[in-house]
Each structure stands twice: as C-alpha cells, then as structure tokens.
Amino acid sequence: MTRTFIVGIAVLMLGACDGSSIVSGPPPKADATPNPMEAKIDALPPALQQMTMFRAIQDGNFTCQKIVQMKKRTPTVGKAIWDAECEDQGRYVIELQPDGIFWVSGVPQPKKRF
Predict the structure, then answer these.
(1) For the whole model, what pTM was predicted?
(2) Ramachandran class of 71: left when φ > 0, alpha when ψ lies in -120 to 50, beta otherwise
C-alpha cells in the first residue's frame, strides 16, 4: 500500500497554527485527547469536511471528481481516520497525522482514456 504524505489543506483553510511547541515523548495513546486539527475539521460543516478530504485526495495525485460517501472511523493510535468513496468508485483512507499532515492511501480507479 502506497502512502503519500499530504500537507493538509485544512491547515490553510483553518488558519495559522496555535503556537504550541513540539514535545518529544512517547507516542499518543489511543484514548488521548483529539488532535486540535481534528477538532477543527469536526467543527466544519459537512460540505467543507468533504472538500478538505477531496483536496487531500487530489493533492496525493489520486483521481476523484467528487466524494459521494465519507465516514469518520474510530481513531487508531490516537489518529483521526476517514474513509472516502469517490464518484468513480475509488476508495481512500485518509489519516490525520499529529503535525496536521494527511496520509492518503487507497484503491484508485484508473484514469479514463477517450
């Protein structure tokens, strides 16, 4: 499975960073408090949440004309995860990293040739 590092468009949409410092230590636990960026994404209207995930998919060089179904999964190792299905039936998993970057992986559909 190929993972593409994606700079979250949500970072640009939601404004500047909150000024918190980087802290080294053990990785977050599954029951840790949510990532502040996750909370901001959750606060967006559904249309903007879909646009954020659409941009993450597009920025990962995957094909997607329109997201037709999107669902947030239970966090894994403290990371927010969304499933998205595109109009062309491409299916993607979008994982929000602690630093606000999206990792996108999935089963893209081949580009149509005319």
Answers:
(1) 0.65
(2) beta
